[in-house]
Design goal:
Largest sheet of chain D: none
CATH class of one domain in chain B: Mainly Alpha
Shape of chain D: elongated
CATH architecture of one domain in chain B: Up-down Bundle
Distance between the termini of chain B: 76 Å
Oligomer: heterotetramer
Chains: A mainly alpha (403), B mainly alpha (179), C mainly alpha (712), D mainly alpha (102)
Largest interface: B-D, 93 and 75 residues
Strand content of chain B: under 5%
Number of strands of chain B: 0
Largest sheet of chain B: none
CATH topology of chain D: Helix Hairpins
CATH topology of one domain in chain B: Four Helix Bundle (Hemerythrin (Met), subunit A)
Radius of gyration of chain B: 22 Å
Structural class of chain D: mainly alpha
CATH superfamily of one domain in chain B: NADH-ubiquinone/plastoquinone oxidoreductase chain 6, subunit NuoJ
Number of helices of chain D: 3
Shape of chain B: globular
Distance between the termini of chain D: 56 Å
Chain lengths: 403, 179, 712, 102
């Protein structure tokens, strides 16, 4: 096969496969091996390049927001700060606390990292670059993500530290809860495409991004993703002011580094997923014929979402745990259910043309938003009134007590 | 012995060993983690059976929900975190006996089934279409709509029931404190 | 179908809506309630006027009325239709009903002292004592709204059943409204009396409807009254009562309904008592609506009542009866009215008398005259009632000012009010003159004259004389009323301090007085000397169109005209002469003149006492002595006691001989056995789930292995 | 290739291990875990039978889904009960929860 500049992925794949088969391996095994290798390469590339480069960007950005300079010592503009940090982490002492459950303690960071990297198996970077096109892709994302939850749980428990355990408790409460609206809302793109395959979903957005058809669903997905990620404003699992550092309090060195990297990678993952599921993935002018272009589009979209999330992270205060759960169970879950129902009805009502679909869905979503805001307004008024009467009651009581 | 058989044997051995550890390990949290492994093994068996949807569902529900719930429960019932004493009761021998007898009986019974040695034929439906077929079967009036609906009602009932059962009854004392 | 039909369907609805809204939602908010009620009435009024205008402008309305109907109630094979019909009669009824109702609604606002603070001493169910707002203000508006709904429904309906529904709604409302001040014993008695008395008539009316439905298979007006064939059949069909055709009997039965509703002798007793309600109610019942409904029914079923009669021919038995009862009632009630002192009571008897007029007119076949008088009477009687209410209101104000506790409704306590209440005086005067038939100017003259002329022209001399006498008495007692109330000097402190009512009360009076005068001009006979023909006789042409055959106008004759003018003027003069100098404590001059006859009049011929003797006492006796003491206590209770005693004996026997030793013994034995077994078995119940499970599993294993091994 | 019997034997073994867990564990949560094992074995059976005997009909998978639902509800309610009991009696040992006896 000739080398095509616009589609290097297929070429590399074919070349490697031929190489392996040439060595005498069966084709299926070779394919499996290649997939493994691909995942490893991907993870390494993302961890190293991403972890080093994007943390630098991240820190610069946060510094700007907080009116600081940020890293500026190592390398030009502090560009090599990430590498220095990595080296530092690698060389640090690996402490296992007394009374810890050693195996579980060591397994936990692995599990967490694994779950995050595992998600990348189904993310379509370009028309020809996808780990595996599972027909249950969306469900796969959820299930692998839940393994990460398990890892955090294990980390918190094995540390033999009550802050770590509390952090783990919060994690479970938060992640299990936020999985519900996430799963529900993922039904919307599934409904549009008729498939749970992420690749098919991206292909289904060739003419219209789903964020235009279902803005409410996209918003819910992003919100729940941030909560799953455990970042501000939902970073209760490691609320420094309350829990030291949450579930990873007792971790040091490279194991802590793995948690850090996986959290960072997770942020990238949800950005990529949002881009793939709602922002059209690699879709863009000319992407079909030139997969490399598609890859660029995809990365641009991912970055846009990622820095949106980052900005959110540095500009929002942390919510309280009860507010967090209230938001999920009393607001996001019903809204997600309503969004699914509304989308289903709108999809049935709309004609097959793009404009008709767009119009009907936008109207439906705006209606849903107005209803939601109305309900919120009514509720807020009720709460305020209750609060006021309570205040009045208290005032009256204190007065009578004074008498 | 083909590769598939080797994979099967490895996975099922892992699953069974993990299962045994589930019922014998002293620490409940360990037991729960072994349960995760065991159920994960079952998920892989599903993949071998070309039921990828069920495999993923197995991971989501069993590992993502049930196992975590169990671990959560274990941690909530704090005393058990420091498990002391024997994990098994006085009648464990009766349980073991019953289990062994049952296993023996089941194997004998399995031996009597004529189709027991069937080899899997190729799937008559492309694997990609299985999922939509399952979906339509579950909501089809002529398919499994009724059991599916009943299951959803059951889920709802379980949800409400567990809420009611596990809710703390501290309301009264709170009121009392206020006064 | 946005058109007059839809409009006609909609006319009755606003008040009904207002009723429900007030009763269910706004009954605590007085302002909102009366706005709702009056607003609804204004809407209905506007719609009614539109319809009236459309109806008048449509040529030959009688043969091409505005009509529409929708299927309503499936009944066996057929379907009862609910429909509307705007023919001349309905149109003109709608016209005066809408006007008077609107006036009364507006008047009620002032009458119930809207705008004044609520007097804390006032109790719901009693009239407000010191000029505070009525405690049940909103409730009143709800009731009159329902009342208006009933009357409007009746006015637009196209069938007897819908009419009956409106009729009964009004019956209910009159019950509720007469007893509006239910704290008063007299009001309670009056409401029951009114309800039961009219019910007597309604039963017969329902019988008539049923008979009609059985005979013709329909209750629709047009299908019965505008179908020669049907009428002929009815006229020839013999009825259960010999000598009467089916049509005649139906007409008679319907007429009894009218007797009840329009308070004709002998069912007249309820109407004077109905004065216990608030004055707008009196106006509503006695002028605009309920009693008019009776005469309306007669006019509506004129072809049926007069079945077998041709213009100029001899009267049928039914007609004779109707005419006689009407004429008799007219005279009879007029004589009673002469001797009453309560201002509203006089008007009540006057109403009975005037209704008698109309009924008599129907009875002699003077259809147009009857309808004409119905319309004019509605206006001037509503005017009179409302004016009298205004007078009473003014008197109450005076009483409140002076603490001079006299009956505010008693005319002997009044006098000289013309200076205190000028608007009320003038409007009352106009109404009174209209009632007494003041020549040429007033509406009452033209309509009454037409009845007399008709009676004279067709040679019904007895009727003519009786009605003329009644007219004389009418003029007399009207003048008596005016003189006693407004002229002369105030006879009490309260009258001295009375003052004019608020604009919401006087405005309706003024409006109605315009109609009390002008309504008559639409019906001046063409052949009347000098002014005849100046204004075309519109009423005759329009109303006459209701009938299948257009009735002919009677030829002009000077005799009834002269009689009518002379009785009116004579009565008025006489009344003024007799009562002009009545002083505070003087006896009624007429009592001196007539002696025992006056006593008879004053006590209303002892009819209440008579009814008490022949109906009420026997009923009580029957209920208390026969039903309660003899049948209930003696017979039924006796049998029950005997059975009871017997059952007790049997029970004791069964218990002592069978139950205790045999059944209880064995049951005890059984329960002891169960207890023992339980004590033995309870060891098995360890409360440990796993043990249960093991047992269950072993059992399952045994069964399974049996199944597997025994039949492989 | 793998014959059906292998799957069935694995499932049977898992089921019996589950039964042993249910019968022998002291801890109520442990009992629950045993039940989960049994249910997983049942699902495995269902899927294996579907794959080998009636691959054209989807009923095996459909019922597997329903058993999943049952398993989830069972776990939720069971754990809720255990937590509730723990709150009241501060024990999760099945033998000590015997107030129903006598």
């Amino acid at each position: 096969m000739d080398f095509n500049f616009w589609d290097p992925f297929t070429w590399i794949g074919e070349w490697l496969l031929n190489l392996l088969v040439g060595w005498g391996l069966a084709e299926t095994i070779a394919l499996t091996l290649l997939r493994f290798a691909g995942a490893v390469v991907l993870a390494l590339v993302l961890l190293l390049i991403g972890g080093v480069l994007f943390t630098w960007l991240d820190r610069k950005l946060s510094a700007r927001i907080q009116d600081r300079l940020g890293p500026n010592r190592v390398g030009p503009f502090g560009l090599f700060q990430g590498i220095a940090d990595t080296l530092k982490l690698l060389t640090k002492e690996d402490i296992i606390p007394a009374g810890a459950d050693k195996i579980v303690f060591n397994l936990a960071p692995l599990l967490v990292t694994m779950s995050v990297v595992g998600i990348w198996a189904v993310v379509p970077f370009a028309p020809t670059l996808i780990g595996t096109d599972l027909n249950v892709g969306l469900l796969y994302i959820i299930s692998v993500g839940s393994i990460g939850t398990l890892g955090i749980m294990m980390a918190g428990w094995a540390s033999n530290n009550k802050f770590a355990l509390l952090g783990a408790f919060r994690t479970v409460a938060q992640m299990v809860a936020y999985e519900v609206p996430m799963v529900v809302v993922l039904l919307v793109p599934t409904m549009f495409t008729g498939s749970m395959s992420v690749h098919a979903i991206v292909e289904g957005q060739s003419s219209l991004w789903y964020v235009a058809l279902a803005p409410v669903a996209a918003l819910i997905f992003l919100t729940t993703s941030i909560a799953e990620l455990g970042r501000a404003p939902f970073d209760l699992l490691e609320a420094e002011s309350e829990l030291v550092a949450g579930f990873n309090t007792e971790y040091t060195g490279i194991k802590w580094g793995m948690f850090f990297a996986s959290e960072f990678l997770h942020g990238l993952t949800i950005s990529a997923l949002t881009a793939a599921i709602f922002l059209g993935g690699w879709q863009g002018p000319g992407a079909e014929a030139r997969p490399l272009l598609g890859f660029v589009y995809f990365m641009i979209k991912t970055m846009v979402v990622y820095f949106g999330v980052t900005l959110l992270r540095f500009s929002m205060p942390r919510v309280r745990i009860d507010q967090l759960l209230d938001l999920n169970w009393k607001f996001l879950t019903p809204l997600a259910l309503a969004a699914v129902c509304v989308t289903a009805v709108a999809e049935k009502l709309a004609l097959a043309t793009n404009w008709s679909r767009l119009g009907v869905h936008i109207i439906a979503n705006v209606g849903l938003l107005i209803l939601t805001l109305g309900a919120l307004w009514v509720r807020a008024r009720m709460v305020r009134r209750r609060f006021e009467t309570e205040q009045m009651r208290l005032a009256a009581r204190s007065e009578s007590a004074a008498d | 012995m083909t590769i598939a058989q080797i994979v099967f044997l490895v996975i099922s051995a892992t699953t069974l060993v993990a299962s045994i550890l589930v019922v014998t390990s002293r620490k409940m949290v360990h037991a729960a983690l072994w349960l995760v492994l065991s159920l994960g093994g079952v998920a892989v068996l599903f993949v071998l059976l070309q039921a990828s949807f069920l495999a993923v569902v197995q991971v989501v529900i069993y590992i993502g929900a049930i196992a975590i719930l169990i671990i959560f429960a274990v941690m909530l019932t704090r005393r058990m975190m420091y498990d002391t004493g024997s994990p098994i009761n006085r009648y464990w021998w009766a349980g073991a006996l019953a289990a062994v007898l049952l296993f023996a009986g089941l194997v004998v019974m399995l031996g009597q089934i004529p189709s027991i040695t069937t080899q899997a034929s190729a799937l008559p439906i492309p694997e990609g279409e299985l999922l939509s077929l399952l979906g339509t079967a579950l909501v089809d009036v002529n398919g499994y709509m009724l059991p599916f609906e009943v299951a959803s009602v059951l889920l709802l009932a379980a949800l409400i029931g567990s809420l009611v059962v596990a809710r703390p009854m501290e309301r009264k004392t709170e009121e009392g404190d206020k006064r | 179908m946005i058109g007059p039909e839809l409009l006609a369907f909609l006319v009755p609805l606003p008040p009904l809506l207002a009723f429900f809204v007030i009763v269910l939602l706004t009954n605590r908010k007085n302002r909102l309630s009366h706005r709702l009620a009056v607003g609804a009435m204004v809407i209905s009024w506007a719609m009614a006027m539109t319809i009236f205008g459309l109806a008048v402008s449509r040529g030959d309305l009688g043969h091409h009325p505005i009509a529409a109907s929708v299927a309503w109630l499936p009944m066996g094979e057929g379907v009862l239709n609910l429909g509307i019909l705007i023919d001349p009669l309905n149109a003109i009824t709608l016209f005066f009903v809408a006007w008077t109702c609107l006036a009364i609604f507006l008047y009620s606002v002032g009458y119930h002292n809207f705008g004044k603070p609520r007097d804390p001493q006032d109790r719901a169910g009693l009239p407000p004592k010191a000029g505070g707002i009525e405690p049940m203000y909103a409730r009143f508006f709800a009731f009159i709204s329902l009342f208006a709904f009933g009357m409007l429904t009746l006015s637009v309906s196209d069938n007897l059943l819908l009419l009956f529904i409106g009729w009964e709604i009004m019956g209910l409302c009159s019950y509720l409204l007469i007893g509006f001040w239910y704290g008063k014993d007299s009001a309670k008695r009056a409401m029951v009396k009114a309800f039961i008395t009219t019910r007597v008539g309604d039963v017969f009316m329902l019988l008539g409807i049923a008979y009609l439905y059985a005979a013709t298979g329909t209750v629709n007006y047009r299908e019965i009254l505008f179908d020669e064939h049907v009428l002929q059949t009815l006229a020839q069909m013999p009825s259960v009562i010999g000598g009467l055709s089916a049509g005649g009997l139906i007409g008679l039965l319907l007429f009894i309904g009218t007797v009840g509703k329009s308070a004709q002798w002998p069912l007249h007793v309820w109407l004077p008592d109905a004065m216990e309600g608030p004055t707008p109610v009196s106006a509503m019942i006695h002028a605009a609506t309920m009693v008019s409904a009776g005469v309306y029914l007669m006019a509506r079923f004129f072809p049926l009542v007069t079945i077998g009669w041709h213009e100029g021919g001899a009267l049928t038995p039914t007609m004779t009866l109707v005419a006689v009862i009407g004429a008799f009632t007219a005279l009879f009630a007029a004589t009673i009215a002469v001797a009453q002192n309560d201002i509203k009571r006089v008007l009540a008897y006057s109403t009975i008398s005037q209704l008698g007029y109309m009924v008599a007119a129907v009875g002699i076949g003077a259809y147009v005259a009857a309808v004409f008088h119905l319309v004019t009477h509605a206006f001037f009687k509503a005017l009179l009632f409302l004016s009298s209410g205004s007078v009473i209101h003014g008197m109450e104000h005076g009483i409140h000012e002076t603490h001079d506790h006299v009956d505010p409704g008693d005319m002997t306590n009044m006098g000289g009010l013309r200076r205190k209440m000028p608007i009320t005086f003038w409007t009352f005067l106009i109404g009174g003159l209209a009632l007494s038939g003041f020549p040429l100017l007033t509406a009452g003259f033209w309509s009454k004259d037409e009845i007399l002329a008709d009676a004279f022209a067709h040679g019904r001399m007895v009727i003519f004389v009786v009605l003329a006498l009644a007219a004389l008495l009418t003029a007399f007692y009207t003048m008596r009323q005016i003189t006693l109330t407004f002229l002369g000097k105030p006879r009490t402190q309260a009258a001295e301090h009375a003052h004019e009512s608020v604009w919401t009360m006087t405005l309706p009076l003024v409006v109605l007085s315009v109609f009390a005068v002008a309504a008559g001009w639409a019906g001046i006979p063409d052949h009347f000397p000098v002014i005849g023909g100046l204004i075309p006789n519109w009423v005759h042409g329009f109303v006459g169109g209701t009938l299948l055959e257009h009735p002919e106008a009677v030829a002009f004759s000077a005799v009834p005209l002269l009689v009518s003018i002379s009785v009116a003027l004579g009565g008025l003069l006489l009344g003024w002469l007799v009562y002009r100098r009545v002083t505070a404590d003087a006896k009624d001059p007429l009592a001196r003149l007539l002696g025992p006859v006056h006593t008879l009049f004053k006590n209303k011929y002892y009819f209440d006492e008579l009814y008490d003797l022949i109906f009420i006492r026997p009923a009580y006796w029957l209920a208390e002595t026969v039903s309660y003491r003899w049948i209930d206590r003696g017979l039924i209770d006796g049998i029950l006691h005997a059975i009871g005693r017997f059952a007790l004996r049997v029970g004791a026997f069964l218990r002592n001989v069978i139950d205790l030793p045999v059944i209880n013994g064995s049951a005890d034995m059984f329960s002891e056995g169960v207890k023992g077994a339980g004590r033995g078995f309870r060891v098995v119940q360890t409360g440990r789930v796993q043990q249960y499970l093991i047992v269950g599993l072993l059992f399952t294993g045994v069964i399974l292995s049996y199944l597997l091994l025994a039949n492989p | 290739m793998i014959p059906l019997s292998w799957y069935l034997i694995v499932a049977a073994a898992m089921f019996c291990i589950g039964i042993y867990g249910v019968l022998a564990r002291k801890n109520a949560v442990g009992i629950l875990m045993g039940i989960e094992l049994m249910l997983a074995a049942v699902i495995l059976n269902l899927v294996a039978f579907w794959r080998y005997l009636t691959p054209a009909r989807i009923s095996g998978q459909a019922f597997a889904v329903i058993v999943f639902a049952v398993a989830a509800s069972e776990a939720a309610v069971g754990l809720a009960l255990i937590i509730s009991i723990y709150r009241r009696r501060s024990t999760v040992v099945a033998d000590e929860i015997d107030i129903l006896k006598w």
